[in-house]
Write a structure and sequence with these properties.
The chain is an alpha+beta fold and 323 residues long. The chain is 35% helix and 25% strand. Strand 11 and strand 12 form a beta hairpin.
């Protein structure tokens, strides 16, 4: 008898050997006497008979199908296993855990941008989470015709509509096409709401849709780097002024980069001042003083710069040196 008992028993379970599966339909349609149902954490088991939902079991555990499951099935409450009468039913295992999915645009999206007649091609990358939210809808729309459904199926459906959604949400509110990362959170929030509404038609909810980065063409990247470098050069003057003021506030004992920048700036300023004096003859130290009536003449002629050797008149140009 023990041999016959083993012959007519089986184990109804899903060990989730394949990652990213949203639901899995138990393949054998014959549930024999002595069979047991195992529901693992993060799983629901749905019994189907002739395409109809007979019962949904959400608590994980190890159950005897004859005594623990059948009494709760809608139209099979009175089913009794006979010697050769297995229960012909389907068991659908649903993954109730939230699953993380990475996404990326298949092709570059051509966006209208000022100054670029042909538009600007960009790509985008990120992640989203998905989970089953409506068992009945999932069974009606998907489980009736498919053996299993995976996150790759969800991803394919979402990526197919991402181009239009990205173009729609990026074009709103006059966003800066060259700095889309600043608006990434707002754009992702709008796309998440649209995708969630669409996927709920299949019984699957979408949450935490994120845009990790926008990818621009290499030419645009080089232009951005050049603009950033020019901006840094333009800001250098303001930076050194602030550093000088900070150094003076500390008694001229600044340290590190700020102190070095102050010293460099001061040295450049002094050098520039000397050049200006040489070019324009400015500054008291740059030209000899005229006679002041004390009987002592200048050492150099203020007119031509020739040494005077104490004379009253310049021997070169005749300029009067003393009163």
């Amino acid at each position: 008898m023990g041999f016959l008992k083993n012959q007519f028993s089986n184990l109804v379970e899903w060990n989730e050997s394949e990652e990213g599966v949203i639901f899995y339909k138990w393949q054998s349609q014959e549930i024999k006497k002595g069979s047991r149902l195992i529901i693992r954490p993060g799983q629901d088991a749905v019994f189907l008979y002739n395409g109809r939902v007979e019962g949904i079991f959400e608590e994980d555990g190890d159950y005897d199908i004859e005594s623990d499951i059948i009494p709760f099935l809608t139209t099979l409450k009175s089913f009794r296993f006979g010697f050769n009468t297995p229960l012909r039913a389907e068991v659908l295992f649903i993954n109730t855990k939230e699953l993380l999915v990475k996404w990326g645009t298949k092709n570059a999206i051509n966006l209208q941008a000022k100054g670029l007649p042909g538009g600007m091609p960009i790509r985008a990358f990120g992640t989203f989470n998905c989970r089953v939210v409506e068992h009945g809808v999932l069974i009606e729309r998907l489980a009736g015709v498919q053996q299993k459904y995976t996150v790759e199926d969800v991803k394919a459906r979402i990526v197919a509509s991402l181009d239009q959604l990205l173009m729609s949400w990026i074009s709103k509110e006059g966003r800066d096409m060259f700095n889309l990362q600043a608006d990434a959170r707002s754009i992702a929030g709008g796309i998440e709401a649209d995708l969630d509404q669409d996927m709920r038609k299949l019984g699957i909810g979408i949450s935490d849709f994120t845009i990790e980065s926008f990818s621009y063409p290499e030419e645009i990247k080089r232009m951005q780097e050049k603009a950033a470098a020019q901006s840094m050069v333009g800001d250098m003057g303001r930076y050194t002024q602030m550093a000088a003021a900070d150094s003076m506030a500390k008694g001229g004992h600044g340290t590190g980069m700020a102190s070095d920048m102050v010293g460099l700036q001061m040295g450049m300023a002094i050098g520039q001042q000397m050049v200006n004096q040489m070019n324009f003859g400015g500054g008291a130290a740059a030209q000899p003083t005229a006679a002041s009536g004390n009987g002592v003449g200048p050492k150099f002629c203020p007119n031509c710069g020739t040494p005077t050797n104490g004379s009253k008149f310049c021997g070169n140009c005749g300029n009067k040196l003393m009163e």
